[in-house]
Each structure stands twice: as structure tokens, then as C-alpha cells.
Design goal:
This protein is an alpha/beta fold. It has twelve helices and 18 strands. It binds aspartic acid (ASP) and magnesium ion.
Length: 423
């Protein structure tokens, strides 16, 4: 009998009525002949509210107490979800992360799952019951409650699905959310965007890294590592969503599966730096220590000087500036130049690994849309162009069109290599 892990996010369980609807989902899956384990997030914005509440007591709450506090949100949801299932005549048992056997390290607020002892879950499932597990939490070696970092319920669900080895007998991890699935672009920006039936873990991760926030990236990584098929679907609609699976399982040979826009970026250029070993580490170590992520690093050398430029989220510019100013002070040379109002357009697809001409197709599309490119970066399965913020949406639409991403038009590898692809 296949086992399905169903995870319901905060929006899906934000009201008693919605919880009831989710409970019906669980029953449907059982009626279809599956064993079902459930993971739930805190209702609506509960976690944010708990954080605000703590801030009203003290500006520096201890991380241990924050985890104790935040973990209560999910406890409310699992209890209500179990009650809802009981009312429908279904045996259900609510469990905290610790009760479900989720052992983590001791890093409060950003704990990592170390091990899952799924014995109790198996026992409940074996007795035809439904374990209903708190997302986002586990237990540290000393018995303290830990949380996995914001958005961590996705990780709980995929990790449980891995521990229960759902793939072995045709099960999946279903992530119920408030979107229908993964789209070729954000439908709010590109109205012709189409829902993808399949996407690989790798593509999903790259899309997430450039702004398509459908699932928590750590959960996708977990899925990839343990080969858990993940089905992202809408909690209030019956339609199938998008399956995230290993690349080998995707039959269509599509070159680009999606594109995304990361708005509101700034570029920091450090000019007149000394050449020689170690300068990069000196710059990026303090930036990393300040927990700021940088992207699109470009280094150029001229005479005895080096210029290093990189992009950061707009909101991080002030912090990066102060870190860099301190460094330049220590070096006794160099200057900072900051440009704001930039955006990044990216096209993603594993088909790029084996097919040429993808980058040039994207550049042609941007050129024809009159969008100047300031910088280009590529990975094996992604091409990104930095453009002016004001051109971001138009550029995204042009790239989406160029790869035929509107419903049913995708450029396949065969079309790409024979030059028959639509442009
Ligand atoms: N409730 C937690 C949060 O809001 C975990 C989750 O929703 O995934 O971050
Ligand atoms: Mg949430």
C-alpha cells in the first residue's frame, strides 16, 4: 500500500473551515488506497505573531525560549487537525516533532534534522491511523525543543517521507499550498505562464534561488538527496499540481522550463583594490559573517589594481556598504561604487547542459525588447542577465516568449538543435 505524506501550510489551515477541508483531503487519499501521514504548519500568520509577541517582552529573547514559543503554533494545528479527522470517523494521533521521532542538532532556531526514528509513526500507520505531526520542529540531544528555521515545515514533510521511504511503493510527499503548482514564470508578472507537470529537483532549486518561492529550498535538497517525489498542489482545488522528481524521470526534453525575475537588486563595485592572493576572502568573509548573500561576482584586473563587483538584495546594501568601508579603511586604498535599481532575469533548464544556443536566444529576445544587459552570469542549467529594474517585467515576458513557455509551446531540445524552435 503506498504511503503519502500530506503537508498543509499555514494558509491551508488558517481557519477551522480550512482545517476541515484538509481533513477531507486526508480521507480522500485514504479512500484511494493509501496510508497517510500528515504534517501541518501553524495557522495563518501565527508564527509571525508569536515572534512579535516575544519582541514586546524583550528585544533579545533567548533562542531556546524562542523555539519553545514558536513550536506552540504547530501544536495548535496538529491538535485541531486530529480533532477534525476524529469528527470524520478517522483515527488520528497528533504528535510534536519530538514525539514523531525527529531528532535534530542543538542549533536553536535553525536546527538540522539528524535522524528520524519512525517507529511510532509506523505503529500508528500500521494500525490504520493517521499520524499528524508538527512541522518545523524537532528535539535536540538534551531534550529541548528546536525549530528548523522559517518555512521549515516543508523540510519536516520531505524528511518524514524519506524516513517512511514513500518512493519504494509509489507514494509521494504532497505539499499543499496556496498556489496550483510550479509555473513557467510568476503568473502575476507573465499572464501566459503555464503550470509545469514535472520539474527536476535541480531546476526547482535554481528557480528558487532566482526568486520563484514555491517551496523551501532545503526541503527540495532533502527530496533530491533521498529521491522523494514531491507533489506541489493547491489545498483548495482538486487539480494535480507539479511533480518534482529526478531529472531522469522526466521524458520531455525541454530546454528551458522556467524563468524568473529577482527585482530590487543593487550592485556594489570595489575599485582600486590591491592585486594578489587573499583579497576575495578578505571581502567576502565579513559579508558572509554578516549573513548577507551575494551573487554575480565579477572580477576585473587592470594594471596593479583589481575591481570586484557583485549584486546584493536592495535591503542589504547599507550593511554591505559598512562592511566594505571598514575593509577599505584597513587596506588603506580602494573605493566603493553602488548602483541601485537593478533586477535579474534568469532562464532555467537542465536541457541547457546538452544544447547550444540557449544563451544567444535569450540575448536576442532581450535585445528585441530593447532591454540593455549590464552583466551576465551562467551556471550549468541557468543563464541570468542583470538589467535595469524598470525593464525587468518586460524582459521577463520577452524571455518567456522566446522559449515558448506559454501553455503547450515549450521549445524542445529537438527544435532547438535543428533550429526549428519558435522564437
Ligand atoms: N510556521 C513556520 C513558519 O511560519 C514553519 C512553516 O510554516 O513552514 O515559518
Ligand atoms: Mg508558514
Amino acid at each position: 500500500m503506498p504511503t503519502i505524506v500530506q503537508k498543509f501550510g499555514g494558509t491551508s489551515v488558517s481557519t477551522p473551515e480550512r482545517i476541515m477541508r484538509c481533513a477531507h483531503r486526508v480521507l480522500e487519499a485514504r479512500r484511494a488506497g493509501n496510508r497517510v501521514a500528515v504534517v501541518v504548519s501553524a495557522m495563518g500568520h501565527t508564527t509571525d505573531e508569536l515572534i512579535d509577541l516575544a519582541a514586546k517582552v524583550t528585544p533579545n529573547p533567548s533562542p531556546r525560549e524562542m523555539d519553545m514559543l514558536m513550536a506552540t503554533g504547530e501544536q495548535v494545528s496538529v491538535a485541531l487537525m486530529s480533532m477534525a479527522l476524529h469528527s470524520l470517523g478517522c483515527d488520528a494521533v497528533s504528535l510534536t516533532g519530538g514525539q514523531a521521532g525527529i531528532d535534530t542538532d542543538a542549533a536553536y532556531r535553525k536546527a538540522r534534522i539528524a535522524r528520524i526514528d519512525h517507529e511510532r509513526l509506523e505503529r500508528i500507520l500500521g494500525a490504520s491511523g493517521v499520524p499528524v505531526v508538527c512541522g518545523f520542529q524537532g528535539v535536540a540531544p538534551n531534550g529541548d525543543i528546536t525549530t528548523l528555521g522559517r518555512g521549515g515545515s516543508d523540510t519536516t514533510a520531505v524528511a518524514l517521507a524519506a524516513a517512511l521511504d514513500v518512493a519504494a511503493d509509489g507514494g509521494t510527499c504532497e505539499i499543499y499550498t496556496d498556489v496550483d503548482g510550479v509555473y513557467t514564470a510568476d503568473p502575476r508578472l507573465v499572464p501566459s505562464a503555464a503550470k509545469l507537470r514535472h520539474i527536476s529537483y535541480e531546476e526547482m532549486l535554481e528557480l528558487a534561488s532566482v526568486g520563484a518561492a514555491v517551496m523551501h529550498p532545503r526541503a527540495v535538497l532533502f527530496g533530491e538527496k533521498f529521491g522523494v517525489p514531491i507533489h506541489v498542489r493547491h489545498s483548495q482545488k482538486p487539480d494535480l499540481g507539479t511533480l518534482i522528481v529526478p531529472e531522469e524521470q522526466i521524458m520531455e526534453d525541454i530546454v528551458v522550463v522556467g524563468c524568473a525575475l529577482k527585482p530590487d537588486l543593487g550592485r556594489v563595485s570595489l575599485k582600486g583594490l590591491p592585486r594578489g592572493a587573499g583579497i576575495q576572502a578578505q571581502i567576502f568573509e565579513p559579508i558572509a559573517a554578516a549573513n548577507i548573500s551575494v551573487d554575480d561576482i565579477v572580477q576585473t584586473e587592470f594594471g596593479d589594481a583589481t575591481t570586484i563587483a557583485f549584486t546584493v538584495e536592495h535591503g542589504d546594501i547599507a550593511d554591505v556598504k559598512s562592511v566594505c568601508q571598514e575593509l577599505l579603511g584597513r587596506l588603506g586604498r580602494g573605493e566603493i561604487d553602488v548602483e541601485v535599481g537593478l533586477a535579474k532575469i534568469s532562464a532555467v533548464g537542465t536541457g541547457m547542459k546538452s544544447h547550444a544556443g540557449v544563451a544567444s536566444r535569450m540575448f536576442r529576445a532581450l535585445a528585441e525588447a530593447g532591454v540593455p544587459i549590464h552583466n551576465i552570469t551562467t551556471s550549468e542549467i541557468k543563464i541570468s542577465a542583470i538589467v535595469d529594474r524598470q525593464h525587468g517585467e518586460r524582459g521577463l515576458q520577452a524571455v518567456h516568449d522566446a522559449f515558448g513557455l506559454a501553455a503547450g509551446e515549450a521549445v524542445t531540445a529537438a527544435m532547438q538543435s535543428s533550429g526549428r524552435g519558435r522564437r
